[in-house]
Structures are given as structure tokens and as C-alpha cells.
């Protein structure tokens, strides 16, 4: 069945998703605020600022008419950075009807209060058909047809099946999960650890060290997420360990690059300016460290990074924070009995 889809956001991820769905013969409009970008995509089939090497499907329609784009669509993907997500969702709320499906692809927290993007979507009074798309999805790799897997998370089967129908392709495979909280938290939290790994890479640490950081990052992020209702098993999937590996090891990740640039002597402000695209991990770090303190959650890597970025602590103290401290179990979600005998 041919669907009408709207993607909100003119950045790299919104553009690759819109392009996949247009290639799948769905009617796709991509809403963006920048008129010049709209014109460029419609006239040349290129989004040169965000995806310069990816020619786009000729039927993909870029638009700055938000009202028309929403009214004409049965499914809306929101690919707006977390900083502006709530503001854009408030604009579309009056246009929503109970049959519309809403998908967040944004990996971050609301900077104004501790909540996820799907919480913002759920506040609309019209539709509760809501899902979260997350996984190891570096947009620039997807754009050139690298084999990629992602996860659609929603308790609602219709939502999951719709997203699979819209996005599946010979190079893009979508898996299902009902643990929306786990998938969404995994996607947001891993950005913190991508910054840590970028820093570690700039310090030229060995592979033992890098593996330890990535694995302890997984322990830390799943500890946080389980406290807020996630299933720890979700962290074994693509949205958990999968995305953590991709983002913690790839120079294509903006968060990793923030860490690498700081580790190479730049300030946080210089790193953000040089990248020129959203790096969600910085805001996520602020929100998560505050919540971890409030709830007594042990997160030495996040706390160490926060001290380094916001309180000018020394780089070495970040990794030092992982080497001391009380937490002694390798796998925390094994039962107490297993830990005793394992
Ligand atoms: N790029 C990736 O590889 C990737 C992959 C998976 C998920 N994501 C997530 O997707 C989200 C979007 O990322 P991206 O990579 O597309 O970002 P980006 O930096 O490439 O682009 C952001 C886009 O949002 C637009 N925007 C910002 N504020 C706006 C506002 N108030 N109104 C309208 N438009 C606004 C910008 O103009 C820009 O077009 C992020 O949360 C990111 O974590 C990104
Ligand atoms: O470029 P980043 O660091 O925002 O990462 C992009 C995606 O989240 C990778 O899955």
C-alpha cells in the first residue's frame, strides 16, 4: 500500500529516511524551515549542506509548508534535534488526528525538563500511535547504501508494522521491540559515551582500554535505563550495544568527534562550532548527570565527563574515575546467586 509520509527536519537523518521511503514508492514530503534548502532539494535533488554525496529521489518533495505536509500524511517522522523538538511538535499538535502515526528519530532529552521525545509526542491529545526509531544508523553510511539495521519500538503493533513497511529495503532492515523506553534511552545515552570514546581515541589509548570503556559504558547506561523502567535485555540489541559500538568507534559520529576534538586541545565551544551539526550528547550529559545524582545512580564515566566538560577537570581524571569506586560486578543484571557462584 502506498502511504503518505511527512518527515520533519532537513538534516542528515531526516533526509536519508525521506529518501528511502521515496525510493519505496511512498508519497514523501520533507518539511524544513530553510527556503533555500527547499529550493535546492526540489531543483537539484541534493541536500548539499547535510548529505552532499547522496542524490535524492526525484519524487521526494521538500516543503516549508508545515500545515499542508502534516494534513496530507498518515505517518509523521520527527527528525528535529531535541533542543527544538517540543517547539515543533507544539506547532503540529492542532493538525493531528487519531489515525496519524508519529515516530521520533531523535536521540536526546528535552533540555527544559527531564523527559524523552516520545513523552513530548504522547502529550498531544489527538493520537497515541507513537513509536521510536533507533539503532546504529550513521546517516552518511545509510545514504551510500551501507547495509544497516535499525529498531522500531512501540507497544502498538500497527505502528511497528507501518514503519517496517515504509523503510525496509535491500540495505535497510528494521527489527521490532516493544520496549520503547529501553530503545529510546539507549539511543540517547550512548551519545555521552561516544564523547568519552572520542576523547580516549585522541589520548591514543589501547584496544584493551577502549573495550573496557565501551563495555563499562554499556553497564552504566543500562543501569540508568533500568532505573527508569527499561528492560536490560534491550541493551543487548541493535539499539543498545549495536549503536554504542557504531557511535563509539566511528569518526562519522558527531558526538565521537566532539570528544576527539576536545581531546586534541579544542574547547567544547570550538568543537561544536567546527562540527556544525547537532551533537546531542552534550545536553544529554547535563540532564543525565543531574538525574543520576538525584536518584543515587552510580555513573562514574558520565560524572567524570561532566566534570571535564563543564568544570574543567583534567582529562586523565575521566578514565581514573572508571578505575576506582565501589561497583565490582562485571554483569549487574545477573542474579545475586549467579554473581556469588559465577
Ligand atoms: N545523523 C545521523 O546519523 C542520525 C542517525 C540517527 C538519529 N539521529 C538523530 O536525529 C536527530 C536529528 O539529527 P540530524 O543528524 O538530522 O541533525 P542535523 O544536525 O543534520 O540537522 C538538524 C536539522 O534540524 C533543523 N532544525 C533545527 N531546529 C529546528 C527548528 N526549530 N525548526 C525546524 N527545523 C529545525 C535544522 O535546520 C537541520 O535541518 C538527532 O537527534 C540525532 O541524534 C541522527
Ligand atoms: O553523529 P551522531 O553522534 O549524532 O550519531 C548518529 C547516530 O545516532 C548513530 O547511530
Structure notes:
It is a single chain. This protein is of the alpha/beta class and 342 residues long. The chain has 16 helices and eight strands. Strands 3-2-1-4-5-6-7-8 form an eight-stranded mixed sheet, sandwiched between helices. Helix 5 (117-122) links the parallel strand 5 and strand 6 (130-134). Helix 8 (180-202) runs antiparallel to helix 9 and helix 13 packs across helix 14. It is globular and about 55 Å long. It starts with a strand and ends with a helix. The structure holds nicotinamide-adenine-dinucleotide (NAD) and SN-glycerol-3-phosphate (G3P). The site of nicotinamide-adenine-dinucleotide has 27 residues, from helix 1 and helix 4. Keywords: Cytoplasm, Lipid biosynthesis, Lipid metabolism, NAD, NADP, Nucleotide-binding, Oxidoreductase, Phospholipid biosynthesis, Phospholipid metabolism.
Topology at a glance:
Layout: E1 4-8, H1 12-23, E2 27-31, H2 35-44, E3 61-63, H3 66-71, E4 75-78, H4 82-92, E5 101-104, H5 117-122, E6 130-134, H6 139-143, E7 148-153, H7 157-167, E8 172-177, H8 180-202, H9 207-227, H10 238-249, H11 254-263, H12 268-275, H13 281-295, H14 300-311, H15 315-323, H16 336-341
Parallel strand pairs: 1-2, 1-4, 2-3, 4-5, 5-6, 7-8
Antiparallel strand pairs: 6-7
Helix pairs in contact: 8-9, 8-10, 8-11, 8-13, 11-12, 13-14, 14-15
Bound molecules: nicotinamide-adenine-dinucleotide and SN-glycerol-3-phosphate.
SN-glycerol-3-phosphate (G3P) is lined by residues 107, 136-138, 191, 194, 243, 246-247, 253-255, 280.
Amino acid at each position: 500500500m502506498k502511504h503518505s509520509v511527512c518527515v520533519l527536519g532537513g538534516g542528515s537523518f531526516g533526509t536519508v529516511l525521506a529518501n528511502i521511503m521515496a525510493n519505496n514508492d511512498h508519497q514523501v514530503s520533507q518539511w524544513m524551515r530553510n527556503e533555500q534548502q527547499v529550493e535546492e532539494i526540489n531543483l537539484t535533488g541534493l541536500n548539499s549542506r547535510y548529505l552532499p554525496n547522496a542524490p535524492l529521489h526525484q519524487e521526494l518533495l521538500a516543503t516549508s509548508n508545515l500545515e499542508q505536509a502534516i494534513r496530507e500524511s498518515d505517518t509523521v517522522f520527527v527528525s528535529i534535534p531535541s533542543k527544538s523538538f517540543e517547539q515543533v511538535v507544539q506547532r503540529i499538535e492542532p493538525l493531528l488526528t487519531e489515525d496519524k502515526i508519529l515516530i521520533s528519530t531523535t536521540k536526546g532529552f528535552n533540555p527544559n525538563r527531564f523527559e524523552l521525545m516520545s513523552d513530548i509526542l504522547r502529550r498531544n491529545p489527538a493520537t497515541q500511535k507513537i513509536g521510536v526509531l533507533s539503532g546504529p544508523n550513521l546517516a552518511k553510511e545509510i545514504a551510500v547504501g551501507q547495509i544497516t539495521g535499525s529498531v522500531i519500538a512501540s507497544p502498538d503493533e500497527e505502528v511497528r508494522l507501518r514503519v517496517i513497511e515504509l523503510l525496509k529495503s535491500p540495505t535497510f532492515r528494521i527489527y521490532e521491540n516493544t520496549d520503547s523506553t529501553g530503545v529510546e534511552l539507549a539511543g540517547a545515552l550512548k551519545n555521552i559515551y561516544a564523547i568519552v570514546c572520542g576523547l580516549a581515541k585522541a589520548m591514543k589509548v589501547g584496544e584493551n582500554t577502549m573495550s573496557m570503556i565501551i563495555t563499562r559504558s554499556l553497564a552504566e547506561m543500562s543501569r540508568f535505563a533500568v532505573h527508569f523502567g527499561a528492560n536490560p535485555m534491550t541493551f543487548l540489541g541493535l539499539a543498545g550495544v549495536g549503536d554504542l559500538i557504531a557511535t563509539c568507534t566511528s569518526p562519522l559520529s558527531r558526538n565521537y568527534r566532539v570528544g576527539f576534538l576536545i581531546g586534541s586541545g579544542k574547547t567544547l565551544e570550538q568543537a561544536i562550532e567546527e562540527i556544525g551539526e547537532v551533537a546531542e550528547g552534550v545536553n544529554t550529559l547535563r540532564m543525565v548527570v543531574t538525574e543520576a545524582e538525584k536518584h543515587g545512580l552510580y555513573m562514574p564515566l558520565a560524572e567524570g565527563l561532566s566534570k571535564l566538560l563543564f568544570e574543567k577537570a583534567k582529562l586523565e581524571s575521566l578514565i581514573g574515575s572508571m578505575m576506582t569506586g565501589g561497583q565490582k560486578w562485571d554483569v549487574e543484571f545477573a542474579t545475586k546467586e549467579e554473581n556469588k557462584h559465577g
